[in-house]
Amino acid sequence: MSFANIYGHSKQIDMLQKAMAQQRVGHSYVFSGLAAIGKKTLALAFTQALNCENAVLQGDSCGECSSCRKMIHGNHPDIHMLETQAQFIRIDAIRNIQEQMTFKPLEGRRRVFLIDDADKMNEQAANALLKTLEEPSADNIIMLVTARPYWMPQTILSRCRHVRINPLAAETVARFLIEQKQMEPSKASLLASLSGGSIGQALELNSEDMITFRSELSRLLIAANQRDPMSLLTLASFLGQDKKEIKQGLKILNTYFRDALVYKETA
Question: How far is residue 240's CA from residue 187's CA, in Å, rounded to a whole number?
């Protein structure tokens, strides 16, 4: 993944490229923003550029050198990903990172440790990471990715450079869907308007289950608009079946009502 392949986030990309050009890359970064908005994608593009054999000249990874190819195939010896489906990131995982940081990079200029969902660190893990951040190493970079930076200790956040990822414009999301997924413009525009500025969310909304969910929700909303008490109860019951569906349903309803208000004000 190179910066050139990323849709939007130009301000953040420019900041990272300037740090590389001026040789002022930090030893630790926090990439924060809403879920599925491109935080990890941007962090990985930065990681690839840092070790690309040609990035010093062009400010972006080339995608063709040995380092880039290994990064793309997920077997670069100096790139370490910490991801977990567990409730917490425990201290053993951080200690493993600390142990690896004692060695020089094997091939790249820097060894990068990317911790996804960094807010999952329990207190012991966070304290261990803090000690590492207090003693930075020139050869190692730690990247923390989180949708909930407010759950992380301020002592950790204050020792990292913060890259805040904002929601994309609906037009940018639609352009991605049209160009990369060969989607019909009308469908792409609809999904983009429901995505909250997240390409990942737009792709999830395009799943068969979500298409069925949206269709049923639309039907119930039309019925509820007739002010029939039973229709309102049916709509409430439909939204109350699953936590994820409640969130998705509320997002869709918010878009419907927003568009209806805009239409009313401009008609």
Answer: 27
